[in-house]
Amino acid sequence: MTEDGRDGTVPGYRDTTALDRRRGTAVRDVPAPSPAVEPAVGAPVHETTAIDRGAVPPPPAAVEPAPPRSVEQHLDEILSAVPQPDPIELAVLDAQGLLCAEEVVSQRALPAFDQAALDGYAARAMDVEGATPAEPARLSVVGETVAGPTGPASIGPGMAQKVAAGAMLPAGADVVVPGVWTDGGMAEVAVHAGPSAGSYVRRAGDDVAPGTTAVQVGTPIGPAQISLLAAVGRDRVQVRPRPRVAVLSAGSELVDISTQPGPGQVVDVNSYALAAAARDAGAEAYRWGILPTEPRRLSEVLESQLLRSDLVLIAGTFPSEGDLVQEALAELGHMQFSQLTMHPGPVQAFGRLGRDSVPVICVPGEPVAALVAFEVFVRPAIRMMLGKRQLFRRTVQAIAAERLLSPLGYRQYLHGQVMRHPDGGYVVEPLADGSGPDEEAMLARMARANCLIVVDEDVTEVAAGGLVTVMPLLLGG
């Protein structure tokens, strides 16, 4: 049983990934509708609520399944429904990597006083104007100031004070002459070049003036922003919190990694892989692991995860009938399972469940398809919840190193390795050509990939040397 819909996971659907490659068309079995039966003239007409137990009821008319949905339709449904958690206040170091959720207005001037920008001599610009090595300006050195607490100091005409970077500028000085432009004198200094007024001086408030914005709403908080927040006296800041994402795996065939799988059993890799992917996207991920198969316990687990999470992510195989997980989800709200025009893993689901209408996304249980679905649907949702402006990974055009095949009507996502082309641009080498029956089950192949190759629905073949769209899979990118 695979996770691309071949087991009839959506009621009324045949395997939409099974393609007649000779004709390039999708093969579907749609039962013909039953012909309407006209009542005989004079025959009694039964009430629709009455049951004629002596007659055989006519077969119900066959319902034609809804057409597969596009990737964009499913993605738009998710992005339009996911909420943005309310801002929270964190210590500045804990806010690293998040988006600022407030206008941080400084109550201080940065710098707080006029100070030297480098080591040298504080002087008056008019006293060193026109100085040259042949005709240096000679000034009396009246002291030395280093960075740190100090008393007031001043200089007059023909005077200079030796200063260190960050030291308070003495009153009367309007320029700092770099030490390398002088002879380094202690009692008297010869200045070989005269900078203009204001050179190498940091005036009070030059960086940030009191009452002005230091950090804006929506700014990613990194080391530079933390430095600025600390400088303006903020040890806490309002930020968009990391969304809490619960990751669960469904399937009676699953065992944890500490268990040696028996016949017919497979190791649950999805809860680990998807939790790691959620963390890389910026979420606070909780890996629950394998869902229980006992109905009551299953419902309890799902309800508890809805209470603690901003988003619930479930990977698994979801048969069309008698599936305990689908039944448990249906008790908590409307969950729409859909067949999408994508490969691998066209069967996806989304709903908002529980008393708080928490978004729940179901992705295929096959690990490679699960991570592809995460990239396409879940990662943008997490970034939207974080308040990010750039929801999607940046894509580039690359030259295909090999011929690619893709099923007509399906957007194909292939793992590959993208490299810089010697002549400029990019070249991509697929790690599968899209035609093999087992290409979506190769974990080792996926682990070697650094990109996804995206082939549009209306393209069935890309010749070697042709251009394709490539999505680099950068950690944290």
Task: Outline the structure in words.
The protein has 477 residues and is of the alpha/beta class. Helices cover 17% and strands 27% of the residues. The protein contains eight helices and 29 strands. The chain has a six-stranded mixed β-sheet, with helices on both faces. Strands 9-6-8-7-10 form a five-stranded mixed β-sheet. A hairpin with a 4-residue loop joins strand 21 (347-353) and strand 22. The chain is elongated and about 95 Å long.
Chart the SSEs and their pairings.
Layout: E1 19-20, E2 25-26, H1 71-81, E3 88-91, E4 104-105, E5 115-116, E6 120-123, H2 125-128, E7 137-145, E8 159-163, E9 175-178, E10 188-191, E11 201-202, E12 213-215, H3 223-231, E13 236-239, E14 244-250, E15 254-255, E16 266-267, H4 270-280, E17 284-290, H5 295-308, E18 311-316, H6 324-330, E19 335-339, E20 342-343, E21 347-353, E22 358-364, H7 367-385, E23 396-400, E24 404-405, E25 411-420, E26 426-430, H8 443-448, E27 451-455, E28 461-462, E29 467-472
Parallel strand pairs: 7-8, 14-17, 14-18, 15-16, 18-22, 20-25, 23-26
Antiparallel strand pairs: 1-2, 3-13, 4-12, 5-11, 6-8, 6-9, 7-10, 19-21, 21-22, 23-29, 24-28, 25-26, 25-27, 27-29
Helix pairs in contact: 1-7, 4-7, 5-6
